[in-house]
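Hi all, long-time lurker, first post. I run a small reading group and we've been trying to get comfortable going from sequence to structure in the token notation. Rather than ask abstract questions, I figured I'd post a concrete chain and ask someone more experienced to write out its structure so we can walk through it together at our next meeting. Sequence below, copied exactly:
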Amino acid sequence: MGKIIQIEVPNWVDENDLKKLILEKIVEEMRKDYVDMRFYNLYLSLKFPKSENVEFDLDEELKILKKMREKEKERVRW
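-- Answer (accepted) --
Happy to help. Here is the structure in token form:
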């Protein structure tokens, strides 16, 4: 599980506006040539909080990708 970071802001600051601002900064960083995987995971967890973004080890991730490709190949055949 990740960290929870609390930021004290004035009452007039809207939580959604702050989140949107942070996401915009992350997207700006992602437009560069290289994006650190941790940075990308932060983006995913902020953008899709209910998806419970999980990091897998490389072998497990490759197996999952292989299964996904096989499913897509099967879907495209029809």
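A couple of things your group might point at:
The longest helix spans residues 58-77.
Residues 15-77 form one domain.
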